[in-house]
Write a structure and sequence with these properties.
This protein is of the alpha/beta class. Helices cover 35% and strands 12% of the residues. The chain has 21 helices and 14 strands.
Length: 570
């Protein structure tokens, strides 16, 4: 027996309000038989002309609609906030929670039975999924897909990663303006999100690994015709999910999130995934302590040889077998019995997937790195934890002791870092503060602090750098990130002075400020909070409610909150 559709509360009553609801759908040119008794499927589309990662999603929405019609549903496309990583300031992270709220409220307030979530640019994946998990309607994610490889002078370019690399060389005077302009025209050649293992590629892979996409969906390049077919299959599948009553709460459990973490580590994924996974688990009601990431990283080799930790790009991963092949290769590290939106288990989804190219997806005995791509640090500088990506760092710096060079803001950093009189050596530890969830605001991706030009000229290309900011998943270097609690609220990073000795010990998972406790206490008593960044609007809501990085930067009133109530219909 089929369940009663949620949308029937709007469309079926023989009342004045039911009449109004039906007549307005018929106003659009549809007949009663088009929508009555059929699952109404919301297609939440984050397409925007200012978001090149999603520029093709207007067309893909049409393919999803075809799939929904084929499956016997009634599709309704609904625009949702398009968080573009490139253009939104002061940080797109500031708006992830806004998209999550919008997603939850769209699904709550409208007569829909299920949802297809369309996104891929860094913050859209977690934002859409957070809202859908909270609302708990049948929902399936359609990743936007990575763009094609960049190309310059016969050389493959990777968005983000090669930008950072070649900008460093430009600052060092190794690249002239004409060459730089040529690269600018060749690094991003199609619609789609970053084709390196940045946050976008990481989070779409995580979405697949935790079971919220169809098998193989996260690996398909955006322009590939297989992406169109995946969009249609996604539309067909969501109709069945409504009848089967498959919701995030029936699919996601603690083992699902372990699968997501394991996939992230094996891919050499972005450090940002830690914040997003903590937030996603919290929406499902699970605590995900940072130590869980460290435990899983320790047993998971990095097999995806993808930039910035490796050599290749996402298009290469797809032709090498894609995420399904990588997951099949690490099957023994997964919980293959977890159910997914396909109606099958993760183990069934990856069964028979084959690696085509062992250079791109390495064998277990020939990993890019023997352990996962991230490590969690603790110590008197980071009592709430901090993150580093050892696979993207200079191995010689993973144990390091140096004196701090402190910058109180990004503006100060920009002003001073290339000053030839800056008191800095290759052994110095660059410290940037007031860049966390509240201090940024929105925890911008400023954690890959630039190397001072006076050191670039000497051939230095990496240094130990500390901040309470994030770092692009496409970035690299010995950068300690997400230091919690942040300096803006008086965390220990606020107490560091230039010249203080700092010790980093990644193998020992320690980050320490070598200053006597009495002196730290004196500094703490002298510290005064800075003025608020916002006094009104959404920014003020963030300042009042956002949690620290180790808790996922979600709003405290939504993280692990109660069930979303259904609206009254009168």
């Amino acid at each position: 027996m089929k369940p009663v559709l949620r949308s029937a509360r709007w469309f079926e009553p023989d009342t004045m309000r039911g009449f109004s609801h039906r007549s307005r759908i018929r106003q659009l040119g549809f007949s009663r038989e088009d929508f009555l008794g059929k699952p109404v499927i919301a297609i939440l589309n984050t397409w925007s002309e200012i978001n090149p990662c999603h520029y093709h999603l207007r067309e893909r929405a049409e393919a999803v609609k075809r799939g929904v019609w084929q499956g016997g549903g009634f599709p309704v496309e609904i625009p949702a906030l398009s968080i573009t990583e490139t253009y939104m300031k002061p940080s797109p992270m500031l708006y992830r929670n806004l998209l999550a709220i919008e997603t939850e409220e769209i699904l709550r307030s409208l007569p829909v039975d299920g949802a297809v979530l369309m996104g891929g640019c860094d913050k859209t994946t977690p934002g859409l999924l957070m809202g859908a998990i909270s609302m708990n309607l049948p929902s399936i994610f359609l990743p936007a897909g990575p763009m094609l490889r960049g190309n310059w002078n016969g050389q493959a370019l990777g968005s983000g990663t090669d930008l950072w690399k070649f900008w460093t060389e430009r600052c060092a005077g190794s690249i002239d303006a004409e060459t730089w302009e040529q690269m600018e025209g060749g690094i991003a050649r199609s619609a789609g999100h970053c084709m390196t293992m940045g946050t976008a590629s990481t989070m779409t892979a995580v979405a697949e690994a935790i079971g919220l996409t169809l098998p193989g969906a996260s690996s398909i390049p955006a322009p590939d015709s297989n992406h169109v077919r995946m969009a249609m299959a996604t539309g067909r599948r969501i109709v069945d999910m409504v009848w089967e009553q498959q919701t995030p709460s029936t699919l996601l459990n603690e083992h699902s999130f372990d699968n997501g973490i394991t996939a992230c580590m094996a891919m050499g994924g972005s450090t940002n995934a830690i914040i997003h996974l903590v937030a996603l688990a919290g929406r499902r009601g699970f605590a995900l302590p940072l130590e869980r990431f460290d435990t899983i990283a320790a047993r998971t080799p990095v097999l995806a040889d993808i930039r910035p930790s490796g050599r290749f790009l996402m298009e290469d991963l797809y032709y090498a077998g894609g995420l399904r092949a990588l997951l099949e290769r690490i099957r023994d590290l997964l919980h293959p019995d977890c159910f997914t939106v396909s109606g099958k288990t993760l183990g069934e989804n990856i069964q028979g997937a084959r690696v085509i190219n062992d250079e791109v997806i390495r064998p277990m005995d020939q990993p890019v790195s023997a352990q996962g791509g991230t490590a969690v640090l603790r110590g008197n500088l980071a009592p709430g934890g901090a993150i580093i990506k050892p696979s993207a760092a200079d191995p010689k710096l993973l144990r390091h002791r140096g004196q701090a060079v402190v910058f109180d803001s990004m503006a100060e950093l920009e002003q001073r870092v290339h000053d030839p009189d800056l008191d800095v050596t290759p052994d110095s530890v660059l410290v940037l503060r007031n860049t966390g969830p509240l201090g940024g605001p929105g925890m911008p991706e400023w954690g890959m602090l630039p190397i001072p030009k006076k050191l670039l000229d000497r051939g230095v290309r990496d240094m130990v750098r500390l901040s309470d900011a994030r770092m692009s998943g496409t970035a690299y270097g010995t950068c300690v990130l997400h230091i919690a609690p942040e300096s803006y609220i008086g965390g220990p990073l606020a107490l560091v002075h230039s010249g203080d000795w700092i010790e980093l010990d990644v193998p020992g998972r320690r980050l320490e400020l070598d200053v006597p406790e009495g002196e730290l206490q004196r500094r703490k008593e002298e510290w005064r909070p800075p003025p608020p960044r916002y006094t009104r609007g959404y920014g003020a809501l963030c300042a009042e409610s956002v949690t620290q990085a180790n808790l996922g930067c979600d709003f405290d009133f939504l993280h692990a909150g109660g069930e979303t109530s259904e609206p009254d219909i009168f």
